[in-house]
DNA sequence: GTATCCTCGATTTTT
DNA sequence: TCGAGGATAC
């Protein structure tokens, strides 16, 4: 999506552009029929209520697959059709560019060109940028400020650390970046950082370094992502007249995925909502899975308190998935305590039960899933409608390898994205310097790429001069050429580089930006560098560079393109051939597939041990929400898998089925006994020791035959706890843990000698229900399920 | 400036 | 176990 900023001339806040008003008026006329407007067609009563409740704060609790986007877009159409506001008077915020793009498209379908006038539809960050550019001087910036990405941020922090004589081995820049991000997420300026936290970096210098970093940003006329939220907040607080302008401007405000907002975003919204108070937030507390990067579920849980008189509408009719899938998901998520309470109601038949199956190890898990996909394919299912959702990306590899063997087309979502590739970042760095010669970080990135013999020594001279004279790096380089300090060789190379940049910069308004980009890449020797490179990726990198130039075409100029890139960092990739999708659960939020495979439901992996260790119960609940997100991606088939052995950090570990399996309702789940392909796999393992397939089925069965499991069945109860009912968690998590670990044991006592297929012989040192701690003679202490060992 | 050795860490990720 | 990234040696 080309950024709107690039296309729309800056409008004046106080004088609405008449052109846009015309569009709105036409849209309104087109949409205003005699009776109920067409766009209400097919909305259920709750959705309609959410659309029609226009005045005052509104929270729409939209469960998975309940038509959330539809409500948002129809609401916009309704506001415009009633003439309550013009397109540019609606603030509509999303989290990702993808969501913003989709929203714009769908509004476009409803309204046609009126969607074009929606200048304030975008991500928190893009809207923040827009606001900040308008009032840059009030924030000590010029309106052409650059936006640093994570890489630039780290580079700058490294500079700060070295200038402050802090050993960056002991106190890595990454760690400081992480801390600063955390503070910014919570809208803390350097002076607001709690003393205790500042203490945690570089012997108490955390807040001080943060302050120095901020000062450096200002010097560079740059902001980081956090500033795009923080600076507008500061602006609004310190300049009530500015805030007032936006209050007048935004008649209606809509926020998507409200459960993902962090403190800064929340404050930002609160300030703006002091105007009209027509703030509609849509979200689902049960799908809050980004706590680890600053999202505060509390924001959504507290909505009614924060915005007095708020109306809450629950969307619970799910049009996506069949009954068993929804029942399973609802029952699972009901184990969480901190939630607003909401149960998905199926609108169609029960369909297929959710299946749960176990595999001996992760390799077998991948083989079985691969086989199942092939069989679905023979039955005529499209691969595009099949997804494998994993907890952690290392799980993907096994599937990829298997699918390559099978010749099964797949696509991996995630991974290094287009704009993060080294060659793209290098090319962009060149263009950034051309567009804004003061961009020191970009200059630093490419001043010796391709290698031109400018080493650290020359760089240090430039940096020192830049500091001493308080000028940008490029300017410092220029001055250095006039002085006596440079050796002849670097002098001539540097001179050529500086002159090249002067030449390119002069061309900015003279030739098309795509042609300029090509010229820069050519003359700088950058393309050459890859042409000469004999490595395997070089060809692909050259392709990427061409793709980059192509992607610049829709933009008016270089500046517009760079703005887009700094915020978007994401390139559309075409649909391509029919293929299975492999991605993380996090990446799957908002998507849906007919068939969803959910491998790796094992304790330690899912829920992830680290999440439990770091965040305790809150961590567990977020993991459970992730499981809920996973299951609710499925329209017709959800297939959960676990493996009893998995290689973690290169070492085989035996694993126990996830507690989340215990939390699925038996009535909606089929436990699959693995087909008899045991031992028929790759590698030398398996098969030879004559184990029966029940070796695998058994631990699973025993897990199910627990008091916790039975209690879970009894607690299934009616599907809906009723609006507003806060389910206090029908069963305690601790209870279930104890329950599943007090399952009947296969009868090994302390001191018994046992044999395990992977770990060999050992002695039982502890018995905890059906889980044994065994001191293996060779493999050390391990926890295993009793049915995996035999009496030795 | 580049090759090789070694050490460390190993969920999730957007802007 | 394996890979990236930094440090060291040439």
TrEMBL record:
Residues 700-730 are annotated as: Disordered. It catalyses: ATP + H2O = ADP + phosphate + H(+); Couples ATP hydrolysis with the unwinding of duplex DNA by translocating in the 3'-5' direction. Residues 41-322 form the UvrD-like helicase ATP-binding domain. GO terms for cellular component: cytosol; DNA helicase complex. Transmembrane segments: none annotated. GO terms for biological process: recombinational repair; response to radiation. Residues 323-590 form the UvrD-like helicase C-terminal domain. Its EC number is 5.6.2.4. GO terms for molecular function: 3'-5' DNA helicase activity; ATP binding; DNA binding; hydrolase activity. Keywords: ATP-binding, DNA-binding, Helicase, Hydrolase, Isomerase, Nucleotide-binding. InterPro entries: DExx_box_DNA_helicase_dom_sf (IPR013986), DNA_helicase_UvrD-like_C (IPR014017), DNA_helicase_UvrD/REP (IPR000212), P-loop_NTPase (IPR027417), UvrD-like_ATP-bd (IPR014016). ATP binds at residues 62-69. Has both ATPase and helicase activities. Unwinds DNA duplexes with 3' to 5' polarity with respect to the bound strand and initiates unwinding most effectively when a single-stranded region is present. Involved in the post-incision events of nucleotide excision repair and methyl-directed mismatch repair. Belongs to the helicase family. UvrD subfamily. This is DNA 3'-5' helicase. It comes from Methylopila capsulata.
